[in-house]
Specification:
This protein is an alpha/beta fold. Helix content is 47%, strand content 18%. Strands 2-1-3-4-5 form a five-stranded parallel beta sheet, with helices on both faces.
């Protein structure tokens, strides 16, 4: 299961998100999504991210103590950040643009529909599987041993 963190300050909006298919069922060859934590502000979300692993974060942009952009910037300080999706009913173009510059995966306007969530899960699954394959390739390369001559040829190829 892919782990999801939802950051939403308004209880009714959080309840609406939790009533959507946040826990997509696992299908053959694909992992599902499960909401494992929630936070009501950016500071609590940062604390959760520091102490737990998440694959996907659904976050309101307008948060107290640390807004969505600040949260995104802090999250991407880590080596392998989760996918971050902004969810909001009010956003300016410049704010959304800055979010994508800092690596936001997607933006969903409120109210989020079931179809929007299913489309998001489909895209997120593809991206998370691509990342996983990339990590496996890197790990398998790390296990390859080169002799000094091979290393020198490889280094010379970058000149």
């Amino acid at each position: 299961m892919y782990k999801v963190l939802i950051v939403e300050p308004q209880e009714f909006s959080l309840a609406a998100l939790l009533n959507l298919p946040v826990s997509e069922k696992e299908t053959e060859g694909h992992e599902g999504f499960e909401c494992v934590d929630t936070a009501a502000n950016g500071q609590d979300a940062l604390e959760l991210v520091r102490n737990h692993h998440y694959d996907l974060i659904l976050t309101e942009i307008n948060l107290t103590l640390c807004d969505g952009l600040q949260l995104l910037k802090q999250i991407h300080v880590n080596n392998q950040p989760p996918l971050v999706v902004f969810i909001s009913d009010i956003v300016t173009f410049s704010y959304a643009r800055e979010g994508f510059i800092y690596g936001a995966f997607h933006y969903l306007p409120k109210p989020v529909s079931q179809q929007d969530m299913e489309n998001l899960f489909s895209r997120a699954t593809n991206e998370l599987e691509r990342i996983k394959k990339q990590q496996l390739s890197i790990m398998s390369l790390a296990n390859v041993h080169f002799n000094p001559e091979q290393i020198n040829r490889l280094l010379d190829s970058f000149d």
